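Instructor's aside before we start: the two examples that follow are unrelated to each other. I chose them only because their records fit on one page, so don't look for a connection. First example below.
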Amino acid sequence: MRRWLTRPGLVLLAVATAVAAITSGSHAATRHEATYAYGSATRQGIDAYWYDSSTPLPALLILHGGYFNSGSKTDWASTARYFADHGFAVFSADYRYNTDAAWPGPRDDALAAVAWIKTHAGDFDADPAHVAVLGSQAGGHLATSLATYGAGRDHVDAAVGLSPINSPYRAWTQAPTTSATATRRKIRDETVILNRCYPDSADTDCWNRWTDSVAKTHASGADDAPLYLVHSSGDPIPAAHSTDLRDAETAKGANPADITVDVTSGSSSGGPLLTTTLKNAIVIWLKARTHTTTPPPQDTGNPPPQDTPTPRTTARPITTAPYKDDPVPPPPADENPLRSAAVTVTTGTYSYGTDPKQQLDAYYIPGTKQPALVIIHGGYWYEDDKSSWVATSQWYAERGYAVFSINYRLNAQTGWTAQRTDALNAIAWVKAHATQFSTDPNRVLLLGSSAGGQIATAVGTYGTGTKYVRGVVALSPVASPYRAYTDGQKSGASTSKQKLRDNSTLLARCYPTKTDTTCWNRWTDAVVKNHASTSDAPMYLLHSQGDFVPSTHSSDLCTALKAKSVSCTLTVVTGSGHASAILKVDGIHTKILNWLQAHD
């Protein structure tokens, strides 16, 4: 029995097959095929295709495409066999999708796959010192990332990219509106999910992630691996992705002969570019750059497990945190003044779940049973914090409410429906601890702002909405993330609308298309009016005339609720304030308070 079937530490996931084939030489030989794991994640699998050889063969890693969120190593089986038949030990790898891991997770997977190949090279008669990579589209992006990350030659000898998306940022900028093709818009949306944010240079962490994902950012000239990059003239991933990378490498001192950018006729992209002529050319190009000289190393074992953070669960003083949405203005001192002596509000921070984001700030007056008001902050589902609502929470607590200002998991961490689930769990926690906060568990209301308004209205229409809350107030609620998406890709859309578009995409974790049922169902579920029923909570919805979240979000929702005989009031104030900025309108706090008191 061959050593690759028996060596400790080499995990075989599928029964190996042996296939009689004709190599590029003249004699019949046996091609072996088997599937292994190079990591612990579901998608960290690798298919091997190789022949017995008395001399080590150059290794070739193939990375599939698929918009960063689809595709499979098995799609490339015939191509893998072709290169195995032409003198390579071939490894076709899956990697985590952008929905599984943000950037640089997919690059980390590609690096791990290369390390696995080098560690186990001897089991496949491969040369660990000579590994090349071939990738298509999103996989091409990973291929050029391997070739340029750090000293690229330390990872691979050479990289082939078929329509590589070398710059996710370029892909984002080239599809701003519906004038771009659906393919380009889908790539745009998937790069947002890959980087977990709208590309904003003022958002340092976000911008660094986008910058890091652009291959030319890492260009270092002679230290990087040679590149063979192919596009078609009508490619939805234009050759500028690769000419930019070529120019960056040569500017750093790379030998121009080491970087080829080939533009073919037609409009093929990715795998369909692989004609017989191109495959033969790639074989010749790769063999010129992968010479076998080094014996295989021994198995070095698995990397240590990562530490898992322990969430905080004890009560703590309320703290502040930076936020990027419109600052919440404090209620005017002369609006609805207290009619009795000053009261002392007790405050504290508590955890309603195990995730660090599942926390709430409580503001209450002990001893008097009072209704509860749960406040859900905005911030594109991406940013902001419960602490921005301190003054407003204090104001409502002084006027007879036990107030709970909550955080929730943001869209960069997890997609819809986690945000609604967190709000429901926070409400359940408040009800379960009603005695502790002198609260009536049957008198809970919601106040949500912008993205938090979408969450609040989604709770009010979830199943039997009145089971959870007695009423919902929402400021500029993004009641239809899909409407926000379509508005944000119209010609002339403002930066705020584009940011909301991208964060709606990040919330849904996919490009909205009816052909992808799972994706479409998630978009549909996030649209609040789709859940309207006779048992929903009454709502009071507010926008401004120039709101970048237009009042049509709420008028559509009110129409759906009224059709089910549920009370819904829409108020449109003057100006162009958004969400918490509406609270600057004279008397608006009193109007909200009056509505809450009428429904608690």
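Example two begins here.
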Amino acid sequence: MENKAKFEIEAKQYEVRLAELEGKKKRICEMREDGSYTKEEFLERKQEMDNQVAAVKISMAECKIDQFDIEAALAYATAFLRDLGRQWFDLRPETRPRFQRLLFPDGIPYTRNKPPHLCIGVGIKVLEPRNCQ
């Protein structure tokens, strides 16, 4: 979830930058009202601020989209890995051996009267860390 914190920090930075730009835009309008800017200077400065505001808003939206994409992918992956039995039965029979190799790269050894020692794949290690020896 460190990515989530990163995206939240980035979004806050964009919000701060947006507030700064809105403040500048307001000051530009005030300077036009008090005669500090000519109409042409005012329009040029206002357009510049509008462009910067639009760029920050776009960056902010992209940041939020990236955050939702990552969160959705993590949620899907976690749900997928938590229900591997269901995934197994949903697979076509010809793809099951490949799926089995992903889960158990060293295969599933069998010795009579002994519990199997399974080396699990990377996907399972994410949910339940174990050492393979």
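The helical segments are 2-33, 39-82, 84-90, 96-103, 122-127.
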